[in-house]
Amino acid sequence: MSEMNSAMEEDQDGGDETFIVPDDLSSVRLDKALAVLCPEMSRSRLKVLIESGDVFLDGKVCADASLKVMAGQEISLTVPPPVSAQPQAEDIPLTIVHEDAHLLVIDKPAGLVVHPGAGNWTGTLVSALLHHCGDTLSGIGGVIRPGIVHRLDKDTSGLMVVAKTDAAHRGLAAQLEDRSLSRTYCALVWKVTQPRGTVDKPIARHANSRMKMTVPTKGGREARTHYRRMAVYRDVVSFIECDLETGRTHQIRVHMSAIGHPLLGDPLYGMQATGQRSLLRKAGYGAETVERVLGFPRQALHAARIRFIHPVTGEEMAFESALPPDFTGLVAALEGDL
C-alpha cells in the first residue's frame, strides 16, 4: 500500500496530524497551507475542521482560515472519526407549542442536543424532528441541521422555532439577521447586577479550548446582550431577563461572566465551587440550599419568550414558556431557603 493510501485510511478513521510549516509555505493562508500539507483531504473538509476548532497553530486553536502561517510554526489537526452523513429519525417526544404547514415552535428540555455533533450523533432534536416531520423539513440547514434556524445549548431549556419549508427558513433567517425575530431568556446569575444594562463585547473562540468562547482583547464577532434585573436573593444571586441583539455561541453565558455575573450552574464559565459556597454561607443560606445550588446540574438559563412575523402569512406571532421545574425549584430555595 502506498504512503498516500495509508494516510488517507488514517484520516478516514480519525486521529491527529502534526506538521511543521516549511519555508515555501511561509506567509501562506492557513487553509491553503493545509491543502498542500494534507493533499488527501478536500478543501471543504479542511475548512470544516478549521471552523469547528479542530486545527491548532503552535498549540492554540486557530479558527481563522485566512491567517497567514510562518515557517517553523507547528500546525496540528484532530480529525474526528467518520459518522453517518444522514441523521436517523428517532421517536423522541417533543413539546410542540405551535405547528403549521411552514414551521414549528417547540419547547426544548434541558439535556437535549439540537443537532448531531462529536459525541452526540444520536438522541438529538434533529432526529426527533425527522421522526415527527418525515422529509418535510427545510433542507437549507443541510443533512446535519435540517430545519434548524437557530439553536440552544444542550443544557439550555426553552423555545425554538424550526422551519418546515425552505421559504420559511429563508424568512426566519432574514428576521434573525435584521433582528425582528426576538428572544428573551431568563437566567440566575451570581451577585447583584445593575437594574439594567447592555453588554457590548465581541465574542470569539477561546484560544486554548475548542469547547469555550471568550471576549477577546482584539478581533471577534460583534455581540450585544441587553439585560434587566427582575429580583435579587439576599444580595448574592440576581434573577435577570436577557434580550439578544445578536446570536453568538454561548453569548449570554460569555457576556454575563465577562462582567462578573456568571450563571449559576455553568460548567464552562461559572464561578469556582469554593467561591459559590462562601457567598451562600455569608448570605446565611443553610446547608441544604447551599448543596442544592452547588449541585444544580446545568446553566440556569431558559429561553422564555420568542416573537417573530410568520414568514409566509405575515402574522405576528409570540410564544411564552414557563420556567421548568428544576429552575423554579432553585428559585424557591433561594427565596425561602427551603
Quick description:
By secondary structure, the chain is α+β, with helices and mostly antiparallel strands. Helices cover 26% and strands 25% of the residues. The chain folds into three domains: 3-79, RNA-binding S4 domain (Structural Genomics Hypothetical 15.5 Kd Protein In mrcA-pckA Intergenic Region, Chain A, Roll); 96-178, Pseudouridine synthase (2-Layer Sandwich); 183-336, Pseudouridine synthase (2-Layer Sandwich).
Please identify the top-level CATH class of the largest domain.
Answer: Alpha Beta
* Structural class by secondary-structure content: alpha+beta
CATH topology of the largest domain: Pseudouridine synthase
Summarize the amount of helix as a percent range: 25-40%
Uncertain segments are 1-14
| Radius of gyration from CA coordinates | 22 Å
Name the CATH homologous superfamily of the largest domain: Pseudouridine synthase
Tell me about the biggest sheet? Answer: 9 strands, mixed
Question: What would CATH call the architecture of the largest domain?
Answer: 2-Layer Sandwich
- Which range does the strand content fall in? 15-25%
Number of self-contained structural domains:
3
